[in-house]
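We modelled the chain as a single entity of 198 amino acids. Its sequence is:
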Amino acid sequence: MNLQPLLDRAAITEAVNNWGLWRDTGRWDRLRALYVPDAIMHTTWFVGPASEFIDRSIEAAKRAGPRGQHFVGACAIELNGDKAIAETRMMLLLRAPLHAVEVDVTCYCRAYDRFVRHDGAWRIQMRENIYEKDRLDPVDPSASVTLDADELARRPHGYRHLAYVQASGGANVTPDLPVPGSEALARLYAQGARWLSD
């Protein structure tokens, strides 16, 4: 019996789980070790080298402290030799000020990771996210916050509240990220399938 696929899946699942915990708790050196040197990150607020994503995350944590949490769920993995794609259910919780009211944003998404075997270990080559739906709630139930309906409607439905809060804080929000039923999601799946089969 060939146990290698089971070992590979276990190692990839562990890496996905560690990403969330290490990102949220500021274990930056361990987080860096999850990526290959030229890895790429795609998020609502950043697209570029994973090393720069981590550097900017460190600076943000120094300014405002830890504001986000990632809860990781079921992980489906496709293997092909030294390549793999892991698609993982995830929930992002973000606490931030909006119009002088502290709010919580809950975003349901899926991480879509391209993994490669690098120096004998599974490492992330590219991480993208698929944004399914989100919501916004005042931390204080007695508080109220008024959103600009036109501005909110301009944001993609899968991450419109998250984008609204991030943009209000000065972030340049990435447009056209994958959401259910979108052309961006179809492209992501097609590109991933081609990459995995090459």
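As a brief sanity check on the tokenised model: The longest strand covers residues 101-118. The mean pLDDT is 95.
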